[in-house]
């Protein structure tokens, strides 16, 4: 019996192309298509597929949240991310959410087929470009002794504010989002710069990016 796949992307022509690539497969079949995060969850709950091929940036609910919801409700369902983004933050966040693989849309059809086989076998698949990016980033972090120790001295509120700073939020916006005073935000920012050895907000932002503290909610 063929394994059932749900395809999710907001570009219908792209989904038709993927369907065409898989049309001759003897092992998998496209059971349903969805064009938004909300449609994806509805289709996955109805079909209960073996595999979901999923984009990240989509209307209504992004792929990270879809992945998190599916893995919470149906942990046996495999999820292969197929994205145009070679972005460390996106990759880390979606893997943390439970994705079983991350392939790039620029990949050749043969690589997509191979990625599907690997993920359905129970292993994780990462495109070569993704592996290279993550390894280089890991090596770079190894060259920065004490980074994790610095993070450990931050309070939960300080980490929250650092994450919002990394998203480009102003002190006024942070104050409104966290329901705290502007003066309290300024105090936290001064404490963050002191604890992390950063001279300004730009350095704080770069630090947050390097340590994976940036939020992805697009």
UniProtKB/TrEMBL annotation:
<feature type="domain" description="Response regulatory">
    <location>
        <begin position="4"/>
        <end position="120"/>
    </location>
</feature>
<dbReference type="InterPro" id="IPR000792">
    <property type="entry name" value="Tscrpt_reg_LuxR_C"/>
</dbReference>
<dbReference type="InterPro" id="IPR058245">
    <property type="entry name" value="NreC/VraR/RcsB-like_REC"/>
</dbReference>
<dbReference type="InterPro" id="IPR039420">
    <property type="entry name" value="WalR-like"/>
</dbReference>
<keyword id="KW-0805">Transcription regulation</keyword>
<dbReference type="InterPro" id="IPR001789">
    <property type="entry name" value="Sig_transdc_resp-reg_receiver"/>
</dbReference>
<dbReference type="Pfam" id="PF00196">
    <property type="entry name" value="GerE"/>
</dbReference>
<dbReference type="GO" id="GO:0003677">
    <property type="term" value="F:DNA binding"/>
</dbReference>
<dbReference type="InterPro" id="IPR011006">
    <property type="entry name" value="CheY-like_superfamily"/>
</dbReference>
<keyword id="KW-0238">DNA-binding</keyword>
<keyword id="KW-0597">Phosphoprotein</keyword>
<dbReference type="InterPro" id="IPR016032">
    <property type="entry name" value="Sig_transdc_resp-reg_C-effctor"/>
</dbReference>
<protein>
    <recommendedName>
        <fullName>LuxR family transcriptional regulator</fullName>
    </recommendedName>
</protein>
<dbReference type="Pfam" id="PF00072">
    <property type="entry name" value="Response_reg"/>
</dbReference>
<feature type="modified residue" description="4-aspartylphosphate">
    <location>
        <position position="55"/>
    </location>
</feature>
<dbReference type="GO" id="GO:0000160">
    <property type="term" value="P:phosphorelay signal transduction system"/>
</dbReference>
<feature type="domain" description="HTH luxR-type">
    <location>
        <begin position="147"/>
        <end position="212"/>
    </location>
</feature>
<dbReference type="GO" id="GO:0006355">
    <property type="term" value="P:regulation of DNA-templated transcription"/>
</dbReference>
<keyword id="KW-0804">Transcription</keyword>
């Amino acid at each position: 019996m063929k394994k059932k796949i749900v395809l999710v992307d907001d570009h219908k022509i792209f989904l038709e192309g993927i369907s065409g690539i898989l049309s001759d497969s003897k092992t998998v079949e496209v059971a349903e298509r969805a064009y938004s995060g909300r449609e994806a969850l509805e289709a996955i709950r109805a079909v209960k597929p073996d595999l979901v091929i999923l984009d990240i940036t989509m209307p209504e609910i992004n792929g990270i949240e879809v992945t998190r919801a599916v893995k919470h409700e149906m942990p046996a369902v495999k999820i292969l991310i197929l994205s145009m983004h070679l972005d460390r933050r996106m990759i880390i966040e979606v893997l943390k959410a439970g994705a079983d693989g991350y392939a790039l849309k620029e990949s050749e059809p043969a690589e997509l087929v191979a990625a599907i086989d690997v993920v359905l076998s129970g292993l994780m698949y990462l495109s070569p470009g993704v592996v290279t990016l993550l390894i280089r980033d890991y090596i770079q972090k190894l060259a920065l002794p004490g980074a994790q120790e610095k993070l450990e001295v931050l309070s939960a509120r300080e980490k929250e504010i650092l994450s919002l700073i990394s998203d480009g939020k102003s002190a006024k916006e942070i104050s409104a989002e966290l329901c705290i005073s502007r003066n309290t935000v300024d105090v936290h920012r001064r404490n963050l710069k002191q604890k992390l050895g950063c001279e300004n907000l730009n350095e704080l932002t770069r630090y947050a990016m390097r340590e994976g503290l940036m939020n992805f909610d697009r």
